[in-house]
Specification:
The chain has 217 residues and is α+β, with helices and mostly antiparallel strands. The chain is built from nine helices and four strands; from the N terminus they run E-H-E-H-E-E-H-H-H-H-H-H-H. The protein folds into two domains: 80 residues, Glutaredoxin (3-Layer(aba) Sandwich); 126 residues, Up-down Bundle (Glutathione S-transferase Yfyf (Class Pi), Chain A, domain 2), CATH 1.20.1050. A four-stranded mixed β-sheet has the order 2-1-3-4, with helices on one face. A hairpin with a 7-residue loop joins strand 3 and strand 4.
Amino acid sequence: MDELTLYFDRAACSLGVRIALEKTGADYNDVRIAIRKGEAQGEDYLRINPAGRVPALRIPGEERALTELVAIHAWLDNKFPQAELLPGGMGKFRALELLSSMATGLHANGFGPFFRPGRFSPEADHQPVLSKHAVTNIAEGFRLLEAKVPDNGFMFGAEPGSADYMIYVYARWGAFTGLDMKAEFPRLMSLADRVEALPQTRAALEKENLPSIHEQG
Ligand SMILES: N[C@@H](CCC(=O)N[C@@H](CS)C(=O)NCC(=O)O)C(=O)O
């Protein structure tokens, strides 16, 4: 086995890694882990990522798959510098700062309890409260991003990178929260449109058979 393998689920956060992989031009395999069917918590997948989360990236020659979004984006950037997934100089650390804050704020404190309230309390009557409060955290995460989105181009200049790809994924998820994304976060949604128009994004959407951000059901 001499190709990378991406463990993913459709439209999950792994989509941001897939867009980055498409940009690298590397050959890779993919293996779908159907989260809703419980496969991320199944014995077979736990052997690959004991944390039971996608994405995971199997790297030829590495005993253990690489996990965690920020680490995977950083590894891909290091391996495929021509893809410009992270900017150069101090910009690299600003992009890692943004990726980490999205992973812990928007994702872990927002979409985590929104999609999986049962993980935060086993009590059935707590769960609607948790989901509702999670939307407050999600909105706060999007507000922080909205303030940073430039008028044109991408988060770190004229070229898109990993931060843009992850923002695109979270912007897609925004549609499920009841937030009026276009009205409340117009700059963010324009950035999402610019990311969706990229060939690497179109290729990733095609591979996961996903509709446009504007056509999600
Ligand atoms: N800290 C992880 C979080 C990844 C994560 O939450 N993945 C979700 C999909 S977006 C997942 O695999 N969930 C599986 C489950 O909830 O069973 C990272 O940054 O990679």
